[in-house]
Structures are given as C-alpha cells and as structure tokens.
Amino acid sequence: MAVPVSQAWTVASYVLTQKLKGRKRYPLVLMLEPLFRCNLACAGCGKIQYPAHILKQELTPEECFRAAEECGAPMVSIPGGEPLLHPQMPEIVAGLVARKKYVYMCTNALLLKEKLHLFKPSKYLSFSVHVDGQREHHDFSVCREGGYDIAMEGIRAAVAAGFRVTTNTTLFDGADPNSVRAHFDDLMAAGVESMMVSPGYTYDKAPDQNHFLGKAKSRRLFRAILSNRKKSWQFNTHPLFSEFLMGKQNFECTPWGMPTFSIFGWQKPCYLLQDGYADTFKELMEETAWENYGAKSGNPQCANCMVHSGHEASAVDYNFSSLKGFLVTARKYMFPSAYPDPDAQKLLNEWRPEHSGPLVQIQSNNAVNDELQEVSGD
Amino acid sequence: MATEQQEHLKIEQLRQHNADEIETIAGREKENLEGWIPTLASDAEVRDALEKAFDYRGDVTITRKDGSQVTGYLFDRRTGSSLTDSFVRVIPTNERVKVNVVYAEIAALAFTGRDNAAGKSFEAWVKKYWEKKVAGEKNIRIDPEKLD
Ligand code: SF4
C-alpha cells in the first residue's frame, strides 16, 4: 500500500488500540459529505439527485469537526457532491489536518487548479481525484467532453505544487481492462502517489440502471486488470481488498468501517445504502441492525456489492484479528506480488470491447493491446 | 429500505441465480410517483406510502390531522410497532431544520415536488451524445441543473 509510513503507523496503532479495548466495531474512515451539489452530472452517480433546497445546503466547518471527533476514525474521506464547491472547504480541510486526521479530499478536479492556492501541502492531506479511465472513457462516464483534460491538468498542478495526489477509478459494465491498464500508466506518469480502483455499485437512483457489474464479471475484469501488474503501479488499497476484487479472497461486508455523515446526519448503514439516519455516531453504532446488511444477510440490495467502502475495512480487520492474518498481510506489504497469471494475460489478449454497453463505444487502443501480448510487469 | 416491489427485478434475478455467478446485476424499475396522492385508509397503506416517500427524490407535502401542512424533503423515517410510535423526518423547503411528524397524525400525503431521479435516463444521454457526435459538435456535455 503506497501511503506514507506515518499514516500506516497511525492506522495500525489505532486499529490495535481498538482491538485491545475489545471493540468489535470501530470506524476506519469517516466519509464526510459536506454537500451534495456537484459541477458534473455523471451517469453513474446517485448522490446528486435531490431537490434544489437540499443541494444548496452544506455542513459548517464546526459540524464537520464535531463529526470527526465523534467518530474518531484516523482517516477522513471527503466525497460529495464536489467538495471544492463548498466555500469553506479550505477551512474544513485545515481544521481536520490540525486534528491530525489523514484527509482524502475527493474531487473531480474541475476546480482543482484554480483553488489549489487555498490549501497547504501536508502529509495529512491528499487530493483524491476521480478519473474513470482514459480520456474518452472518463469523458463519457462524467458526461462531459474535455473533463479528462481538466482533471489531468489539476493532477499535474497539484503534484507540481507539492501535494499528495491519489486517484479513484470506478468501473461499470463494459469497462475495457486493457484501457484501464493503460490508464494506470498515464496516472503514474502524471506523478500520482497511488491509485484506487473499484466496481460501481447498483445505485437505485443512478440514471443508468442497466450497466452494473455482477460479481462474476467484476472478478473476471479485476483479475484481468490487476494480475501481471507493473512495478510502476502503486495502489493505495489494502492488498487483500485487491485480491478480493480479483476473486482470490472472500470478505463479508463491514458496513460500520466507513461511516458517512452528511446534512441528514449519520447514514444507516453505509455510504451507499440509505436506510435512515442517526443523529449521533453512538446512535448509529448502537441502533443500526447491522445483521441486516452484507451479502450473507440475504438483503438483495447488498447481494452484488463489492465496493471499497464496505469491504476494505474487512481486509484491515482480518489482518489485525489473528497472528495468521497479520503475517499474511505483512508478507504482502514486504514482498508485493505482481500476481503473475498467464490466464489473466490471455483474458486481456482476447478481450474485445462489447458494443452493447454505453461506456464501450470507444474504439480499442490497438497500440495498447499489442503491447500487452506478452505477460507484462516491468 | 427499498420495498420488495421496488427491488423485484433484482430479487427475481437472485431467485434464479447465485449472486456470485451473476454477470450483470439488474437495476431498479423506475416508479412514476410524481404527483401521486396515495390513499391512506389502512395502516399498511400509510406505511407503504411513507416508505415510498422516504425513497422519493423530490419534495412531498404532508397534511396533518389538525390541518397544518409541511412541505419538504422527507429524508428519514423511524418505524415502530404502531402508527403512534412511528414518525417521518422532513427538511422543509425554506428552513434548515428537521421536523418530525408522527404517522398517526398524518391525514394526507402528496408527492408534490419534481422527482429528481426521474427522466434522466442514460440511454437518452447516449442517443443524444451520438447524434451530436455525428453532427460534428464539440464539447458535448450534460451540465447539472441550475439551483436558482
Ligand atoms: S454490502 Fe455494500 S451496500 Fe450492503 S451494507 Fe455493505 S457496503 Fe453497504
């Protein structure tokens, strides 16, 4: 996992403390949603569909700080909406950094370059830029031509200004693994610290209700993408979560691992599913019927879910739950694998973009395919 | 929590196949609730209508039995064992407060606001995109709606 040692140490000691205190449920990342409005109208997004009076509302910095303190998680992710539309975002980020929270400020980067001077580089702050693939894939999925170029310009400007920059890529049915791999090359060349990739979730409010990846296809896609990986690629996801996506591990969901706070309160049970709101973090933890969520619960809304916010905390919990888990994970950090897999390479070589899906109309990049005829990994 | 009716495509799919083997998972069929005024004759109808109001991405108008009204976004519901210990939570259109209304106090419900999740089909965007692309248009995009 490509994160600074101080961050890894903070997270490890936090989790160990929770374990020693005998806490069965502890948050790892606070998902802080200070507003829902956005300057994009992405095809896969179900977060922005509220009446105007709700979209105009935003959390105050004090509400954000109170939520961070109530929850106590060592990391705070700020999604939205687009956080850079919040006029007090620099103040919110500075306040969280002052509280020694590791902040991932998620952004589509349309405004990043022009707002960069309002932030100060810090080991506690990373801009997590959402880039859904190479130029045409990204532009199509955010429904805006030119979006990719602006995002990449924002990334380069932030890197040049000395900020930590990570990326987040969400994949839907029709994603082309060869193009995703070329996308990783582009991102690393732009100087990003590390990348995250995750399958989209079947948001019931998403405008596109027909292109959600099922689990079988997700695993095949991620096996093609993440096997035979290049040494230059750095990921900021837990190695066991990446194995989970590739079908090499099975984890149940940990919906309490990444709790969400917004203008409505603490969202039950997770970042994705709305089943009501609690007014306090304590109420969220104590009064949510956690047994009703996750694939094993039989809840149809969870049946397909493999997302990071529900499952990465399971990987973290696993590595601190037993000596075996700890040793397995430690080995993976010390000796990162490229996951050599000739079958996955075959999958890549034979993958043909499907022309049925709306996100796959982009012509395949032959140069990329040719380059990948042999097992890659430098 | 979605009702069984809302999730029926996925439930049907899961009845036929193991979730681990499904290639593409079903989405949800959109219900057209805008303008709907449900009948609230029985407890079950009250609960069902308020569950749908919780799921609705537009404002609703609730008329209480004392004649007073609240219009706004219904963002939460807490269901108890009876209508007297169940309540909805609403953020009114013009205030930043959270108003509680007990189910038993509700005389009428109307889905008065525009459904912000409706009418934004991705297929329509794809069609428009290709029409514009073929016409040689540049900078094709969907912009978020204006808030004022
Ligand atoms: S399985 Fe997914 S949708 Fe269900 S509770 Fe977990 S994270 Fe949320």
From TrEMBL, chain A:
One of its GO terms (molecular function) is catalytic activity. Its cofactor is [4Fe-4S] cluster. PROSITE patterns: RADICAL_SAM (PS51918). Keywords: Iron, Iron-sulfur, Metal-binding, S-adenosyl-L-methionine. CDD domains: Radical_SAM (cd01335). SUPFAM superfamilies: Radical SAM enzymes. Gene3D superfamilies: Aldolase class I (3.20.20.70). Coiled coil: none annotated. Residues 20-236 form the Radical SAM core domain. InterPro entries: Aldolase_TIM, DUF3463, Hopanoid_synth-assoc_rSAM_HpnH, Radical_SAM_PqqE_MftC-like, rSAM, rSAM_sf. This is Hopanoid biosynthesis associated radical SAM protein HpnH.
TrEMBL record, chain B:
It comes from the Bacteria. The lineage of its organism: Bacteria, Pseudomonadati, Acidobacteriota, Terriglobia, Terriglobales. This is Uncharacterized protein.
